[in-house]
Write a structure and sequence with these properties.
The protein has 388 residues and is an alpha/beta fold. The chain has eleven helices and seven strands. The C terminus is likely disordered.
Length: 388
């Protein structure tokens, strides 16, 4: 590259080549002029001036070419240095980019591995949940099979009743499957004191009638289902009143346990006449929740009755406790008296100790003159007191 008059040109640029051609033409013209000088000496003077001017111009052009060559060499060196520096910078940037890409790829692979691990854990959790759901669905189907049969449904209600009673009452307060004097077997007999006396709880589950009410989609179907519910519940109330309310043996009432809160709510919401019939027959309908509350009340009654039974023993124990308290008071008084005598003895011992200490100091200092007045009294009591 070459810079002329503020413009940069390449070596093979047409303008640079034209400039070289002009220089060569000027040199040829100079040679022609030198040849014509020999012909005319008079005309040679101005020609010589022109030749001198041309020579100076040629000299300037040669100097410019040398400067141009030096500038081009400097430019080429600077360009080489710049290219080297640029290559170094590009290599550094490429190394940095490669390092950043390596770190990014490593971080991405680490996060991907962690995400895959978390995904695996979640898939395992989903598999466990799916297994639990399948197990639960199997249990639901088993429960449906149980509830579809009257005998198994009755056993289900008895088991639920036993679980509630076992949690609410002590073991000696009830009996499951107790046989009464009429030969009837009660699901549960609570041993309450008189009054009211032992009370029977019998489990009933009118599921078919309730499901018919839920499935009814026409007024006629709803009416028929309601009638079936009334018939079923009324039959259970009458059977409990006849079998488990025995004068002189049980309480004058009994409980009908419904192992379903939904059936219990349906009766109280839409069949209040059945609830009133139960009250009239002294058969009280309870659900798992209300049965637990009723049993807690019975437990309080049992506790109160047992406390009354133990009232005599409690009074005897209180009498003995009172005697023990009196005896303790007498012993405390004796101990206080002994403590008073001990305190008095300690005070007298301190007085004797102080007197003995004073006499020992006098003997140590040879104060015999001070001892003489102490020996002066002839009264034996005084001599003994002084000795003390």
């Amino acid at each position: 590259m070459i810079t002329l008059f503020g413009q940069t040109y390449a070596w093979n640029d047409p303008e640079v080549l034209l400039l070289g051609g002009v220089a060569l033409a000027l040199l040829g013209l100079l040679l022609l002029i030198l040849r014509s000088v020999s012909r005319s000496a008079t005309a040679a003077e101005p020609l010589m001036r022109e030749i001198g001017w041309l020579s100076s111009r040629l000299q300037q052009i040669g100097d410019g070419q040398q400067q141009l060559a030096g500038g081009l060499h400097h430019v080429s060196e600077a360009q080489a240095v710049s290219q080297t520096a640029m290559l170094q910078v590009m290599e550094q940037r490429l190394a940095e980019v490669q390092r950043n890409m390596t770190e990014a790829l490593h971080g991405t692979s680490t996060r991907t591995a962690r995400s895959l691990g978390e995904l695996q854990t979640r898939l395992e959790t989903i598999d466990k949940a799916q297994a639990n759901i399948e197990k639960l669905s199997g249990n639901v189907l088993s429960l449906q099979d149980i509830l579809s049969n009257k005998q198994t449904r009755g056993a289900f209600g008895e088991i639920q009743l036993h679980d509630i009673v076992q949690k609410a009452l002590p073991k000696d307060a009830y009996a499951m499957q107790a046989t009464l004097s009429n030969g009837k077997r009660a699901d549960c007999l609570i041993h309450l004191p008189n009054p009211p006396g032992p009370i029977v709880i019998d489990a009933k589950f009118p599921l078919e009638a309730y499901e018919a009410i839920r499935r009814a989609d026409t007024p006629r179907g709803a009416t028929e289902a309601a009638q079936a519910m009334r018939t079923a519940v009324r039959t259970h109330i009458r059977a409990i009143a006849e079998k488990y309310i025995l004068e002189g043996e049980t309480a004058d009432g009994a409980l009908m346990f419904l192992p379903s809160e939904a059936v219990y709510a349906e009766l109280h919401a839409n069949f209040p006449d059945l609830v009133r019939e139960g009250f009239a027959a002294k058969v009280w309908i309870v659900s798992p929740t209300t049965c637990m509350a009723t049993l807690n009340t019975m437990r309080a009654v049992l506790k109160d009755a047992r406390m009354r039974e133990q009232a005599g023993a409690i009074r005897k124990e209180l009498s003995l406790l009172y005697s023990d308290v009196e005896r303790l008071g007498m012993r405390v008084e004796n101990l206080d008296r002994h403590f008073g005598q001990a305190v008095k003895d300690i005070e007298e011992i301190k007085i004797s100790s102080d007197k003995a200490g004073k006499r020992a100091r006098r003997l140590d200092n040879f104060d015999f003159e001070e001892l003489a007045p102490d020996l002066a009294p002839t009264d034996p009591a005084k001599v003994i007191g002084a000795a003390e």
